[in-house]
Amino acid sequence: MIAGNAVLESLWLATWTGSIAIIIVMLLRAPVRRRFGAGIAYALWWLPVATWLALWLPARVIEVPVQAGSPALDPVAVTTVAGTSDPSFDMNTLWMPMWLLGVGLMIGMLLWQQRRFERALGRMRALDGERSAWQAESAAGLPAVVGLLRPRIILPADIDTRFDDKQRGLMLAHERIHLHRGDAWANAFTALVRCVFWFNPLVHIASSRMRHDQELACDARVIAAYPHARRAYGEAMLKNANPSLMVPLGCHWGITHPMKERVMLLKNAIPSRGTRMTGALLVGVAAIAVAAAAWAAMPPRQMQRSSEVIVKSEGRDFQASFDIAMDGGPSEDVLVVGRYGEPFTVRIADSETGSFELEGTVTQASANGAPAYRIEARLQRDGKSVGNPVMVVGAGKQARIKLGDEAANGKFAGVDVNVQIGDVDPAALQARDQAEMARHQVERTRVMTHQAHASAAAEAEKAAAEARLAADEAARAADEASGMSAVEARAAAEAAREAANEAAEAASEAAADAAQAAAEAAVMADEARIERRVIRKTYPAPPAPPQPPTAAMAPRAPAAPPPPRAPGVPAMPRAPKAPPAPATHPAPPAPWVASGKASLHIEREVRNGAAPSTVAKAVTVASHAQAVAAGGRVLTSDQAASLGLEPGYRWVDMQSLISGHASASLRIESAIVTTDKDGETPRYIGYIR
User: Fold this and answer.
1) pLDDT tier at 198, thresholds 50, 70, 90
2) Of 59, 219, 468, 633, which has the maximum CB count within 10 A?
3) Does the pTM of the predicted model rise above 0.90?
4) Please, which residues have CB within 8 angstroms of residue 239's CB and are 6 or more apart in sequence?
5) How many domains does the chain have?
6) At a CB cut-off of 8 Å and minimum separation 6, what does 208 contact?
């Protein structure tokens, strides 16, 4: 169905663009013939051909950016079929068979005309001394050129009696011009156009006008070659003015043409060569103009271009700004914040230009006594190495890496990288974090919308299946009603109508559910929280947690008095004392997720259907009391032990503050901080007792 609709759309575009070109030619052919000659007027028929050729060119491309909330799938169309009405009918399913039927009928009619003409020729014999001229047994519709792969000049049976020697020579000269110019192929193309656009009357009118201009152009060529034979040439045309048969794939002499006009044009002077060249140039310019107009009328092809940028770096010693462009396309602005001597990576995956990877390190250097940076990079394009540049860049100065070739059209084919290195700019860092948040939000919204449309499609399919089931039940009920009484038949029909109505209601509910799901996805995307976390950590030597007393240092408990001895029982001898056991130390505690004194800076921006609020002033929680006052929840020893937290510390759960729905900024300085499993959000803070 989609392919059929595309064919009909292309056919409609070719119809109205070609019709405009045909109207232009019909308006210009007479004045152009008077000014520049019949040959230039015949060349005007290249204008509609140019418009149709232009439609085969690739349409212009418009890049459509990926927007948040844009559906990943086409909207789901749900057709509701009422129980008392006929199903909806798409007219496109009718136009395509009708057009194909018309094409087939037109081809059949032209082939029948061609076959009728060839059968009427009878047996043919080659003329002496003429390799491409043959004489037929009949005279209807002759002389003519017949055939495409092996075209031949067919002369009438009475050529020797109807025409004198001079007229026969002029007639053969006329037909040879048709052969040399390939006019039989031009007429075959015209027949093909008539088959494709059989429904357009302008095409059929243009076909006869084109063949008339074709004959006039041949007449002009003959008169230019034999300027003193105008009278004999005119008499020969008048003797063959009423042919009775027409050949679609060939060239007639005189068929469907006003003979009076042709004879009168024989009196006109032949334009000079310069005049004809000027006319040909103007026709070429007009053909290019109409072709460009037809191409511009084509609907543009929309291309959704996607680009993903991944940056991996650690540290905050320097800030490098990269402006990366591939193959002269749009550039990607990438900000890298890293540590001296540590490698960083920038990966770009573009749906049009391919993939690009930049790996490098930055170290401090000097240039002419001024601070500078040394960057060593390795560039890859689609997995293949394209260069390993090394350069020294002054602080705040721009440098450029350009690897590739200049194409013939002036467009650069390769990688163009502009880089600027300097100290870390907090504002630029904040802008990078916000751009990263926006990218994640777009991806999340796209996934949510995709899920909503998939759910709607499933509901619609389910409703359609229920409607088909109801229709089958209605058909069975109708079959059963054929053998019932009138009362039973009416009851069965009523039951069938109720089943169809229920199916229609189910389809309507599915459509409503689909719309609601899409609306909920949009609301969820709009209300999705945007979070930004910037975590800074420093780890000096971790303080030792308070150790429990060892066995050697533990105070000795007083010895219990011996039990009283029963009367008459002798005292038991004492066992020798065992040597004292050596002092032992407990095993070191199990390592925790993060230990040592830490300085963390957490910033959060939360948007819930409104613009993000201003970030509050940072709150410092350097003690247990400050953490509790900031909103932390005190954990008991049992709760800390159940969470696997190290004993010997006073633990505070900061999740209530970190996950709050208000804008907050928190600075934590403590002896020990643990993080969640994702390693991103610090939750539990421990303070030495």
Assistant:
1) very high
2) 219
3) no
4) 162, 163, 167
5) 5
6) 256
